[in-house]
């Protein structure tokens, strides 16, 4: 996507410097900063500190981390150590382990003197695949938005509600939940996006920054406003991303997603999840009991970051001193609350049969495991 007229991916490989470049998302939407990632420690910190964030982007970052590990020392022992080091950075998004496993399996089958070159080539491949997956999700989601638009009169826009940032900043490009939005906007379909602020990190501000850069009409709202808008017929469709989706279609996403799904069900609003296939965890069935939920720092709840009147990026405390903060980063939406899963292969029901129908090869592997 574009920033001030220049196309960017969320990460890219600088061949001259032989190093990964990332957009340091801690400073957005107020300041656009690019950081070079040089060491395995840098990779781990980038993931933990959410300089890069979003399940697909975390996976792509980890793949480049394995490429660095193979360049430093291609031995099996070192690759195993790098795998374990990066795997512990964040527990919930399955793309992290998916990418690490894919890299390790591929590399260990090769002679040591071939691993460094192969690792970098695979990291590029994973990044490029993510772009194409998300573009295809957008095309499949576009058809849903188009059908809603066909029922509108007098040029009334299709009104969508998002939660968190499942945009291009959370992927290598296009985004998951935003990809259909961009496709619809570019196709000339009138749309308007209600953007949840998504406390505690206010990642909705990233979505607003993205949509504004692309010229998509939108309004930034508090998390608790969504149900009210649905009650008054002001939401035609909810579309969110996912950090891990179970084999039966339970969806783990940013905290607060479950409440949006409940409100959508109560008000007969379609609730769709944009789902890239690497985010499916074929080893897990019951999302509520089996998916580990990351508990992040209480400071994310007790403090908030913004720009003061002097134009400085600052943090301020919003709670009384000494008040403890709880910060579960994700929740799970049971599959019966999900209208459909929008994948790169099409749209399916949030059921084992729906997922198996689109990804029969993965279903067969899971059955044998």
Textual characterization of the structure:
The chain has 369 residues and is of the alpha/beta class. It folds into 2 domains: 2-129, Up-down Bundle (Four Helix Bundle (Hemerythrin (Met), subunit A)); 138-368, Rossmann fold. Helix content is 41%, strand content 19%. A 7-stranded mixed beta sheet has the order 8-7-6-9-12-17-18, with helices on both faces. A 4-stranded mixed beta sheet has the order 13-10-11-16, covered by helices on one side. It has a 3-stranded antiparallel beta sheet with strand order 3-4-5, with helices on one face. Strand 10 (244-246) and strand 11 (251-254) form a beta hairpin.
- The portion of residues forming beta strands comes to 15-25%
Poorly predicted regions: none
Broad shape: globular
Assign the CATH architecture of the largest domain.
3-Layer(aba) Sandwich
Quick description:
Helix content is 41%, strand content 19%. The protein is an alpha/beta fold. The chain folds into 2 domains: 2-129, Up-down Bundle (Four Helix Bundle (Hemerythrin (Met), subunit A)); 138-368, Rossmann fold, CATH 3.40.50.10470.
Layout of helices and strands:
Blueprint: E1 2-3, E2 6-7, E3 11-14, E4 19-23, E5 34-37, H1 40-48, H2 55-72, H3 76-87, H4 94-108, H5 112-150, E6 158-162, H6 178-186, E7 191-196, H7 204-214, E8 218-221, H8 226-231, E9 237-240, E10 244-246, E11 251-254, H9 257-266, E12 271-274, E13 280-281, H10 287-290, H11 299-302, E14 303-307, E15 313-317, E16 330-333, E17 340-343, E18 346-348, H12 352-358, H13 360-368
């Amino acid at each position: 996507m574009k920033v001030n007229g220049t196309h960017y991916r969320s990460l890219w490989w600088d061949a001259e410097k032989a190093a990964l470049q990332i957009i340091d998302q801690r400073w957005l939407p107020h300041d656009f900063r690019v950081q070079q990632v040089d060491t395995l420690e840098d990779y781990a910190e980038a993931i933990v500190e959410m300089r890069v964030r979003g399940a697909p982007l975390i996976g792509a970052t980890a793949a480049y981390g394995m490429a660095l590990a193979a360049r430093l020392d291609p031995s099996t022992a070192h690759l195993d150590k790098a795998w374990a080091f990066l795997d512990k950075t964040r527990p919930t998004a399955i793309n992290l382990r998916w990418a690490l496993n894919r890299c390790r399996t591929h590399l260990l089958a090769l002679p040591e003197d071939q691993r460094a070159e192969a690792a970098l080539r695979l990291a590029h491949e994973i990044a490029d695949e993510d772009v194409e997956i998300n573009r295809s999700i957008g095309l499949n989601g576009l058809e849903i938005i188009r059908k809603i638009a066909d029922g509108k009169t007098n040029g009334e826009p299709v009104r969508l509600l998002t939660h968190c940032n499942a945009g291009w900043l959370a992927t290598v490009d296009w985004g998951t939940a935003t990809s259909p939005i961009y496709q619809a906007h570019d196709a000339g379909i009138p749309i308007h996006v209600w953007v949840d602020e998504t406390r505690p990190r206010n990642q909705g501000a990233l979505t607003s920054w993205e949509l504004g850069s692309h010229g998509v009409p939108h309004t930034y709202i508090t998390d608790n406003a969504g149900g009210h808008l649905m009650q008054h017929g002001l939401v035609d469709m909810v579309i969110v991303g996912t950090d891990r989706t179970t084999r039966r279609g339970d969806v783990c996403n940013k905290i607060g997603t479950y409440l949006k799904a409940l409100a959508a069900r109560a008000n007969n609003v379609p609730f769709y999840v944009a789902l890239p296939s690497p985010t499916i965890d074929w080893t897990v069935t019951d999302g509520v009991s089996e998916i580990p939920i990351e508990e992040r720092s209480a400071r994310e709840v007790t403090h908030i970051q913004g720009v003061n009147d002097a134009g400085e990026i600052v943090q301020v405390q919003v709670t009384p001193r000494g008040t403890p903060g709880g910060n579960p980063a994700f929740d799970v939406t049971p599959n019966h609350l999900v209208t459909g899963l929008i994948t790169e292969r099409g749209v399916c029901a949030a059921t084992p049969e729906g997922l198996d129908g689109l990804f029969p090869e993965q279903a067969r592997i899971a059955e044998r495991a």
